[in-house]
Amino acid sequence: MLMMHINQKMSLILLLSFLYFRQVTVAQVPRLHPDEAVVVRQIATTLGATLTNPTDDPCQSGKLLVTKTYAIVTEFTEIVNNITCNYNDGTFSHVTHVTMKSMSLEGTLPPELVNLTFLKEIELTRNYLSGGLPKEWATMRHLNKISLTANRLSGKIPVEWGKFANLTHLSLEANRLSGTIPKELGYVNLTELILSANQFVGSLPITLENLAELKDFRISDNSFNGTVPEFIGRWSKLQRLEMYSSGLEGPIDPTIFALGNLIDLRITDMSGPKFDFPKLINKKMKSLVLRNLNMSGSIPKDIWDMGVQKTM
Ligand SMILES: *[C@@H]1O[C@H](CO)[C@@H](O)[C@H](O)[C@H]1NC(C)=O
Ligand SMILES: *[C@@H]1O[C@H](CO)[C@@H](O)[C@H](O)[C@H]1NC(C)=O
Ligand SMILES: *[C@@H]1O[C@H](CO)[C@@H](O)[C@H](O)[C@H]1NC(C)=O
Ligand SMILES: *[C@@H]1O[C@H](CO)[C@@H](O)[C@H](O)[C@H]1NC(C)=O
Ligand SMILES: *[C@@H]1O[C@H](CO)[C@@H](O)[C@H](O)[C@H]1NC(C)=O
Ligand SMILES: *[C@@H]1O[C@H](CO)[C@@H](O)[C@H](O)[C@H]1NC(C)=O
């Protein structure tokens, strides 16, 4: 039954890719700037991809033509190979988005990326990339989003990463990163910061208080220490907070539960002195998971009337 499903899916993929190749023979965008074409080839090599046609223009084909990848295709594996060149200077195109998801890339992160001057997004989720985070990346003025979720990256977050001018989304989830969170990260105007499932230690730096635009903060499964900072209760735009087994200790400041935009709050496995269940919980809360916390007192009655999906 399952086999049949996969087979059908694979023939569908083959059919779609055939149609896709037929379509893209008509060029709609100017060709990639020759300097960037060189950089793209360097990047492919560093990431561990083998180009099948090094002279292919990724702005025309919309992807990097690479040799077969070996990701195990399941219903949940979304293989994406997408190069977008949304900026042109009148003569040449420039790469703006690089997405290579679940492509079994086994190389390292390319410092050469900085020479794609107009890059806005880099998304390398679910590969086997190892090595460190390149400090050079922080010089990219347009870079908005970095997703390196589920790789084998190690080492520390470089202090240079505090210099990103336009980075809003940073996900480093599920890697082997370690060390403390550099205080410089608090100088980047992030809306999303996802550090879960790594080996980070130390306390959260006080500079993170500056992240007034933060909507999504996840630090589950790390070895942080110190108490949950009170400043989280001042992140007024926060919508999702996830701290499963973060290593941080309670108490959890009551202002955090009351945050007006917080609709998804998950905290589990936290030691520290006993504290009371907060009297006030944001009325718009949709998901609330509080487990194995040193909390006492009664759960406010109205929380059951809110239609909250609760696990306690
Ligand atoms: C490729 O990425 C761009 C920018 O993220 C997106 O607009 C486009 O729909 C994607 N194309 C495909 C075929 O997935
Ligand atoms: C970017 O390109 C310049 C000029 O080709 C080169 O000197 C420099 O080493 C490149 N930077 C990286 C990080 O590869
Ligand atoms: C910074 O990002 C925003 C949102 O994507 C964009 O509108 C703006 O043009 C970017 N600025 C630069 C310098 O790239
Ligand atoms: C941070 O980003 C928001 C939009 O996401 C913007 O309104 C605000 O001005 C930025 N703040 C700084 C200090 O750059
Ligand atoms: C927290 O962790 C840091 C880094 O590992 C360590 O230097 C510090 O002593 C720890 N603090 C406490 C209170 O355990
Ligand atoms: C819970 O709080 C009590 C009283 O503050 C303390 O004695 C106990 O060690 C705490 N338990 C945990 C698991 O932190």
- Would you give the CATH topology? Leucine-rich repeat, LRR (right-handed beta-alpha superhelix)
In this entry the ligands are: 2-acetamido-2-deoxy-beta-D-glucopyranose
The dominant shape is elongated
- The tally of beta strands, per DSSP, is 18
CATH superfamily annotation: Ribonuclease Inhibitor
Chain-averaged pLDDT: 88
Kindly describe this structure:
- The chain has helices at residues 2-23, 34-47, 58-61, 254-258, and strands at 80-84, 87-88, 93-94, 97-101, 121-123, 130-131, 145-147, 152-155, 169-171, 176-179, 192-194, 199-202, 216-218, 223-224, 240-244, 264-276, 287-296, 309-311.
- It is elongated.
- It has 312 residues and is an alpha/beta fold.
- Mean pLDDT is 88; it is low at 1-25.
- The protein has a single domain, classed as Leucine-rich repeat, LRR (right-handed beta-alpha superhelix), CATH 3.80.10.10.
- The protein is 14% helix and 24% strand.
- It has an eleven-stranded mixed beta sheet. A five-stranded parallel beta sheet has the order 6-8-10-12-14, with no helix packed on it.
- It has four helices and 18 strands.
- Bound molecules: 2-acetamido-2-deoxy-beta-D-glucopyranose (6 copies).
